[in-house]
Amino acid sequence: MKIGLITTIDTNIGDDFIREGIYHVLKEVFKGERLEFVCINKHNPYTVYPAWHPVHLRNVADHLPVGKHHVINVIESLLPKIGSSCFDDCDLIVQCGAPVFWPNCSRNEWAKPIWQDVIGRLCGKIPVLNLAAGSCYPWERQPAVIEQTGDAEYIKTILGYCRLTTVRDRFAKSICKSLDWEIPLIPCSAFLAARGRIAKIQESGYILLNYMTGSGHYAWDQEIDAKKWEETIKAIISRLGKRHKLAFLCHNEMEFAIAQELAPDLPRFFPKTVYDYFKCIAEAKFGINNRMHASVGMAGMGVPSVAVCTDTRLLMVAELGLPVHYVKDIDADILEEEAEIALNSLKTEKERLLVLQSKTWEMYLSAVRKALSRS
Known about the structure:
Elements: E1 2-7, H1 13-29, E2 36-41, H2 57-61, H3 68-78, E3 92-96, E4 99-101, H4 111-122, E5 128-135, H5 149-161, E6 164-167, H6 170-178, E7 206-210, H7 226-240, E8 245-249, H8 253-262, E9 268-269, H9 274-281, E10 284-289, H10 292-299, E11 305-309, H11 314-318, E12 324-326, H12 332-343, H13 346-373
Parallel strand pairs: 1-2, 1-3, 3-5, 4-5, 5-6, 7-8, 7-10, 8-9, 10-11, 11-12
Helix pairs in contact: 1-10, 1-13, 7-12
């Protein structure tokens, strides 16, 4: 059985967690079958076509001295009609998590080449699932309705293509509801990535710090004080470091370098694979994270955390019953208090998270099986 995956590759290990959780679900749903996965990087959307396809003439046209934009537009408009994408001979297509709803989401680079040209053509004959779709809106500007007409039409269109959509946060659910779609809310599939692995949760374990400048990917014109967040983390390192072992958990080279500047005496972990990442988490007891999938990944092994960020991706962590904070609402006193509360109930919290993971597993299996049972 061949399954096409719309995903992100070699960008952020959090995307690997999302995909890993979906792998687990699909392997269980199709237990006993030989599965072949075809992963298409949505940030390089024309790789959805095989190398021989004439649509790749767009790469040659990009070197024309004049008129290249016109030629590329013609190629991208006409040649996809030939069909024969890498998904054409798949038995199932799955959009793998990540933010799907955000301001101006209709203008993303894969909307036309993947969703319109390929999924729109194939959805009538190949089942399409959209699993763990999330929102990413500024924390201070969460719209009650989608104001951009293009975004509303885009969202309704892709929801219509999919036999099943699940969302990972309550704001994503409300967006869909505002467009007259009732969509099930299930925690992010990344919560299942570590399924079968459980952290030791020992008193001697690390408190892991995942730090990003300004606490997130984007400031969203919310007047985020990056220096204040830096000082908050420095204060936390000073306070908690007197009683606990601390280490940085980094997702990219920039975070690794910044961690060295912030606290050169602390260990820095920079795992490059899902397996190595979960080896780090196995030695942890708590986390303070700016990357939301650091918190989700930890939770999947029973490690609690507090998440701090700038946008509605926080809400996917909130679905796990973990504390979350908009960066402008947090200070070192609050973080220290929440850390100590969690550290005093590690066993209870570990058990709660693992029970929730089991429930999440059953919710995904049930939803996917039900969707695929429909003709």
